[in-house]
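Support request, please re-run this one:
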Amino acid sequence: QVQLVESGGGLVQPGGSLRLSCAASGSILSINRMGWYRQAPGKQRELVAAITSAGSTNAADSVKGRFTISRDNAKNTVYLQMNSLKPEDTAVYYCNLVQSPYVYWGQGTQVVVSS
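Re-run finished. Output below.
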């Protein structure tokens, strides 16, 4: 059993910053991929950024240069540093863990970017 617990969401003004954290517990393998997805109202869930246990990353074009994903393998925790936030970043952000062939999701944390 795997559990993902997210934290760090909230309300921020445009141009502001937030840092999301996601701690994984349970049967965590040494080889996996952790990431963040988001879903805005009326839209499909989309990949924001992901990072493998080896440190390889990828990110959506819309967040490149503003968001940074990182992880602490010893703590089984992934972070998403979000800078220069825009109103269009408003969404529920979900933590994701892939340990092939299984995929796990967190419960989601709300991020609202508004003045």
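The two ends are 40 Å apart (CA to CA). The mean pLDDT is 96.
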